[in-house]
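Table S2 (continued). Query chain:
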Amino acid sequence: MTSYLVMLQTNSNQPFIFSSPRLREQIGASFEITLLSRWVKEAAFDMKLPSMSTSEKGIKTLPATFWVSDSSGKVIVRFTETDGDPKELAKRLIREVTLRALTEAPGLDVTGVFVQTSSNTVDAGDLNALDSVFLEYSLNRRPAAARFPQFPFLERGSESALPASASLGALKFSQESLQPNIFDESSPLSFPSRVKRAFASTSRKQQVDDVQERLAKQGMELKQEPQLDPTKLAAAFQDGEESEDAKNMLSSVGVVHIDGNGVGAIMRDLDTAHTTVKPHLSSLEPALSERKSDDPKANPCERAEDPFQWFIMEVNRRLDEVVKDAIALSWHEIQKLTQETVVPIVPVLVGGDDITVYTDGRYAIPFAEAYIHHYEELTKDDDLLSVLAIVAGGKKADAPERDYFEIGDYIIQNPGPLTASAGVAIVGRNFPFHIAYDLAEGLVSRGKKLGKKKETVPCSTIDFHILRDATVLDPDDTLDEYKGRAQRPFLIGHYTPQRIGDATTTSSEEAPAAEPQALSSWARILQAVAAFDGKKPDDPTQTTGDPFPRARANRIVKLLAEGKEEKAATEWGDALQNAPSAGFLSKQLRLLPPHSSSSNGIAEALEQIKWLLDLIDLSGNLPDGYLASRISSDADGANPEEAADDSTEGGAQ
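Corresponding output:
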């Protein structure tokens, strides 16, 4: 039976979202990308495929063979001869969806391609062929910006490189989800900008409703209602045209970017991933049988009919659920830190295992750490994703090339959590979002080099940057300032003890401690911050005396930056003799890596003082009460690393 695979995908998502400096447009652009799946589904319904069915409740259902993959901004479907000529159906679907994107989401670039399958079922070779055709076709297409020529006479849109257009009202452009406001309608905006802004209200409401719904299923709720009005929300982050709404302005803005480790490897080699999980699929049966066929979140594919197609959709579905649940739980955790104010949290990019979130600069690092904790815990507890962690961990360097799967070839050989790398750029209010995003993305890349170090178990990481000098904006140049005077990025999460024992950074990997400490690596770093602030490490609500002198700490950091390590060590030695707080801090720093094996006092001092810049930045950019809350959660048994052992079994507690 002849069948065709069809792939529809949005291109250049980051430029589409970050092309505008306005938060409202970015919120709306993110929403437009998520519409692709809905467009495909509605177009397929309109085609009235003979194999479609309707339930007793009147709910239409596409054939089980239709969906192959459905993730944010990328959809793969299959047509068979059962519904007519599959090639013509493929062309028709692409035409309908791309035309709808052109008319309803101006500026969004959607590409559609199709290939004939090699057999009656989906296999990895067909997917690879589809990717090849897509890449070749994409290279020969005109960019979406070419749809909006502005010469010879069109006025340029406000804060845009595109030409201005008439208002949506004048264009008679209306959709159910569009909510344009009076200010936008009277401003000289480009057509894509107008539509993005009009989508912002619907997008924000859906974000908050989804978070509340997910929390309610776990008996939780956000005690204070998040800001739903995107105009007022944006005013907290940046000065806008709507000055009358500029209330509760933030002193700093945190841009959080988090990317899963190894998920790309899974998607590039789905055949191996499927082979890996086959022995474990029997454990999924109870959960699968509980799902009703009319559940919108149920897998529409039939496992018995095409196990590989079912597997792809199941991975998509479960990963999407985990990412959104982790966002909701992290949102709830941050809001618990303050009962007086509502912390603005704005997810602007949620696709696959990749998320970007804007928030108050003080809460950005706690949000990133909370997300990684929940992401690891949720994937570890998922029967399918926990097995895929074996593939995500990668093969051993000496593993031979085989035509079959052999678990002994992999670094991780037991189910466990997937890991992720987080980058946090803390910038001033009104700082361009796209530059902060580039910085956060650079931090993620730097963390991945550490977290995915060859021949070691993968590990989650967190890295951050406090932007002080806006004259240096290149991510590589900006991050170079940490060389030789900071310990970040940090290894955190489930696999940390297996990488470094009781240590927290890469420096101590050569000589890990024999036994991990009771607290997680992140909690021990926070204990050092507490000591730096003159508080008790085990109970930061109590003070022990004066904090470590900030002027002296900055002086030592400056000496390190200038390459004057011996003078920096001497300055540290003077502090130990003359400042009681220095001795208390030194005692806490000895628990952190790297642990010097040298008897040279200067070498030992240098290992400690390279933590000072990290402590300075953390001390000044964490909210009140966070140290006590996070440290106590570990002490009470909520440590996500406690259950990790040499076999990699177990996970977050």
